[in-house]
């Protein structure tokens, strides 16, 4: 920290998970005038050290906010971000009311999804719930939800950056194919490796029960965080060690023909809670094929939205209806968490099978 540098504390709106932290810190640390930026997820704030000359704190916040707004975040000098026409207390109240009013739309949509979910299960068209817990159908649906959530913001940000870089060089298609191909293959292979590691530790009924409970709790925390109404839940999230995720994201700075392929592989190690919950489950499969197919199903669920991102600036987190979407996604994830919890209780023999279709 040089003699001209100052320390600033700003508030960040829109963060839900550790992926948000990594993406925000990366964008801010890339700014020429920023020496260091450290994000606190639980406090919803960021501490920035840099030399911004004579700029006011508000001007610095606006300048930094431009770097992260494309990812759906906003930086402000005040904890409550409003339209500027109300008092801070009024802004906070309006934000709270808006957050809860989103449930008026999100709850019926979730109920409709639940009915469709059970009808498909009853008809035997897709096996989303099984006595063993997470199935390939479940992993696929979770992948769809994950691809539209802020937990995939890092992957989307990397992909947009990658697309823009190679588009400038006149190469649009090949890098996309390499990225998505590398991602799908790596999720299958690395998922299989985790499955084999799980086979080294033979899981008895009690171990399977404990692992099922852990998976259910991880998904429950993810779902609660997506609701964005309980700030305390952010402290409960698990995450990949920062040095691993930062090195994984650093692959994009390589300038090489194989960079898109390497970035696709690196996404397996990025801090998305959904990815980590699936990785945790693959341990219980005890086989290369079971673990590989679980992670491949999840990756295939993320493919449609990530493919859209490849060729456009599509992003749900910038939508005016993002609150409704996140709450709907959160409720669906909580629903899956409850199903997994019930299945774990069935495995241990505490309750009888509930989804006996």
Explain this structure.
The protein is of the alpha+beta class and 357 residues long. The chain has two domains: 6-97, Alpha-Beta Plaits (2-Layer Sandwich), CATH 3.30.70.100; 103-348, no CATH class. 60% of the residues lie in helices and 8% in strands. The chain contains 13 helices and six strands. It has helices spanning 18-29, 57-68, 88-101, 103-123, 136-147, 153-168, 173-199, 205-227, 242-250, 259-266, 273-282, 288-311, 322-348; strands spanning 6-13, 34-40, 45-50, 74-76, 129-130, 133-134. The chain has a four-stranded antiparallel β-sheet, with helices on one face. It has a two-stranded antiparallel sheet with strand order 5-6. Strand 5 and strand 6 form a beta hairpin. Helix 7 packs antiparallel against helix 12 (288-311). The radius of gyration is 21 Å and the shape is globular. The model is unreliable at 81-97 (pLDDT under 50).
Core attributes:
single chain; 357 residues; alpha+beta; Alpha-Beta Plaits; 2 domains; 4-stranded antiparallel sheet; two-stranded antiparallel ribbon; 13 helices; 60% helix
Summed up:
60% of the residues lie in helices and 8% in strands. It has 357 residues and is of the alpha+beta class.
The ordered H/E elements are EHEEHEHHEEHHHHHHHHH
Q: Structural class given helices, strands, pairing?
A: alpha+beta
Question: How far is the N terminus from the C terminus?
Answer: 64 Å
Question: How many domains?
Answer: 2
Strand order of the largest sheet: 2-3-1-4
User: Shape from CA axes?
Assistant: globular
Radius of gyration from CA coordinates: 21 Å
Number of strands: 6
The percentage of residues in β strands lies in: 5-15%
**Helical proportion, percent range:** 55-70%
Overall pLDDT confidence: 76
Low-confidence stretches: 81-97
Largest sheet: 4 strands, antiparallel
What is the tally of helical segments?
Answer: 13
């Amino acid at each position: 920290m040089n003699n001209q540098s100052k320390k600033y504390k700003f508030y960040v709106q829109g963060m839900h998970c550790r992926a948000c932290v990594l993406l925000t810190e990366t964008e801010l640390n890339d700014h020429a005038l920023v020496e260091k930026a450290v994000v606190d997820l639980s406090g919803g704030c960021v501490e920035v050290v840099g030399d911004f000359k004579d700029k006011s704190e508000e001007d610095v916040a606006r300048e930094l906010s431009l770097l992260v707004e494309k990812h759906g975040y906003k930086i402000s000098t005040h904890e409550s971000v409003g339209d500027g026409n109300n008092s801070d207390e009024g802004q906070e109240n309006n934000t709270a009311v808006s957050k809860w009013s989103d449930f008026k739309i999100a709850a019926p949509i979730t109920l409709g999804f639940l009915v469709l979910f059970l009808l498909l299960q009853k008809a035997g068209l897709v096996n989303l719930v099984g006595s063993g817990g997470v199935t390939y159908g479940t992993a696929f649906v979770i992948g769809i939800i994950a691809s539209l959530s802020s937990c995939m913001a890092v992957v989307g940000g990397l992909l947009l950056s990658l697309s823009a870089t190679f588009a400038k060089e006149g190469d649009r298609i090949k890098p996309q194919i390499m990225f998505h191909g590398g991602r799908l293959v790596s999720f299958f292979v690395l998922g299989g490796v985790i499955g084999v590691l799980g086979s080294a530790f033979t899981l008895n009924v009690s171990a399977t029960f404990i692992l099922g409970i852990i998976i259910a709790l991880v998904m429950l925390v993810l779902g609660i965080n997506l609701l964005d109404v309980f700030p305390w839940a952010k402290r409960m999230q698990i995450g990949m060690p920062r040095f691993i995720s930062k090195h994984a994201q650093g692959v994009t700075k390589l300038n090489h023909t194989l960079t898109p392929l390497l970035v696709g592989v690196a996404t397996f190690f990025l801090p998305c809670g959904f990815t980590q919950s699936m990785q945790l489950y693959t341990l219980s499969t005890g086989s290369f094929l079971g673990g590989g197919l679980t992670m491949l199903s999840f990756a295939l669920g993320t493919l449609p939205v990530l493919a859209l991102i490849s060729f456009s600036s599509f992003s749900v987190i910038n939508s005016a209806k993002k609150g409704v979407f996140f709450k709907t996604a959160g409720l669906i994830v909580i629903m899956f968490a409850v199903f997994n919890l019930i299945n774990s209780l069935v495995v241990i023999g505490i309750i009888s099978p509930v989804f006996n279709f």
